[in-house]
Design brief:
This protein is an alpha/beta fold and about 400 residues long. The protein has 15 helices and 13 strands. It has 2 domains: about 300 residues, Aldolase class I (TIM Barrel), CATH 3.20.20.70; about 40 residues, no CATH class. Helix 1 runs parallel beside helix 2 and helix 2 packs across helix 4. It is globular and about 55 Å long. It binds flavin mononucleotide.
Length: about 400
């Protein structure tokens, strides 16, 4: 018997009756910023994701497909706002189908962390913009979303899910973490509403639950809906934390969600989590284990896991049903296949500086780069600039 068959991480994972992954390791949503200004993928986009699919993970997600053509993070992100966008992604989902690889797409509304609109407006539940956005755009103005705007947002997610289905996606991931729109509704710190969209954990989750319900109706149960749930924003007791989310987990399962991928952090605290990986990992393990206890669907997380041995230990002890990788996958798209083949010595390891994340907002960067992967190594000038200014 192959030793790998004894590893918890190499057992199959079922997304309800919709899709099966050959193992419990996934590449987390990673917006690589390889699209044109209209959100259509450039050729390198396909190269990276095909490479990731061949790298040993059982499933994975395309990062940050914006559901709102007007809400952007930068000018290079993916969009899924028309049939033409769906058509452009079709070859990738066809490539996934041929590999038997459940490939999903993350549906994203940037909300309070979006670039301000041309009128300088930022959409949010309670007129609270992210302080990182306000620092960069002091004249921007956050507005409290009207009921009409909220219903429009549900339609945008639903339309994007239909486009994803049309493109051939077998999984959809609703982005409800990291301080973006849906997560800002879930948070007691940024959602101060007292109408039907706020006031208690379940009411703050109403936007997310309505999106799930609407997508479920529109896609006719043909695609697995997953949720990326922010289980801790790093802001302590008054912010979002796992203890507030038990009922929400139950409601998500009842709403037909097939799996939940958890994560931690928002724009104000990403740096803290990237720099304190032991703390980040401990919080993720503890939060995930707690949230798992409310449901029977698979629950896992991404954040600060470095290798397959660590993932095995996490899954084996019951802290998560599956484990994802972000930066480790950027550094070496094939590191899981290499480790499973006993060739750890060949793995290019992430240095953990998170400069790749900084590339997303850096005017000098034309995409997300890496400092170890030769396929998209950061230009030397930019690398030096980061080393001198960001340490
Ligand atoms: C360059 C970069 C791009 C990312 N893009 C996304 C994204 O599109 N959607 C998302 O939910 N998270 C995104 N993330 C967060 C990752 O999915 C992951 O949660 C985070 O990197 C922590 O995991 P890690 O420690 O394994 O890197 C991104 C992270 C990085 C570094």
């Amino acid at each position: 018997m192959n030793n790998n068959t004894l590893m918890p991480a190499t057992r199959a994972l079922h997304f309800g009756a919709h899709a099966v992954s050959k193992n419990r390791l996934y590449f987390s949503s990673l917006g690589m910023d390889l699209c044109d200004e209209n959100g259509f993928p450039r050729p390198e986009f396909f190269t990276v994701y095909e490479s990731l699919m061949d790298g040993g993970c059982g499933f994975g997600f395309l990062g940050n497909a914006s559901v709102d053509a007007g809400a952007r993070y930068n000018s290079r992100g993916l969009r899924l706002t028309s049939a033409a966008h769906a058509q452009a992604l079709q070859p990738l989902f066809e490539a996934a189908r041929k590999r038997g690889f459940p490939l999903g797409v993350q549906l994203q509304h940037y909300g309070p962390q979006a670039l301000p609109s041309e009128q300088g407006i930022i959409l949010s539940p309670s007129a609270i913009a992210s302080s990182t956005i306000l620092n960069a755009f002091p004249l921007a103005r956050a507005v409290e979303m009207s009921n009409e705007q909220i219903l429009r947002c549900i339609d945008q997610f639903t339309d994007a899910a239909c486009h994803a289905q049309q493109a051939g996606a077998s999984l959809i991931q609703i982005q409800a973490s990291n301080g973006y729109l849906v997560s800002s509704f879930l948070s007691p710190k940024t959602n101060l509403r007292e109408d039907q969209w706020g006031g208690s954990p379940l009411k703050r989750a109403r936007l997310l639950l309505s999106i799930v319900e609407s997508i479920r109706k529109a896609t006719g149960d043909n695609v697995a809906i997953t949720v990326r749930l922010g289980m801790d924003d790093g802001l302590g007791e008054e912010g979002q934390h796992a203890a507030l989310l038990g009922e929400v987990m139950v409601a998500l399962e009842a709403g037909g969600v097939s799996a939940i991928t958890c994560s931690v952090g928002i724009s104000e605290t990403f740096r803290f989590f990237f720099k304190n990986k032991e703390k980040a990992l401990a919080m993720s393990r503890e939060g995930c284990r707690y949230l798992k206890s409310f449901v029977r669907i698979p629950v896992g997380f991404t954040g600060s896991v470095e290798d397959v041995a660590q993932a095995n230990e996490i899954i084996g002890c019951g802290d998560a049903d599956f484990v994802g990788f972000g930066r480790a996958m950027l550094a070496d798209n094939h590191f899981i296949a290499k480790e499973l083949a006993g060739r750890k010595d060949l793995v290019m390891r992430c240095k953990g500086d998170a400069f790749c994340f900084r590339d997303k907002k850096e005017p000098m960067a034309e995409r997300v780069y890496c400092c170890v992967n030769p396929d998209y190594r950061r230009p030397e000038k930019l690398q030096l600039y980061y080393e001198e200014n960001l340490k």
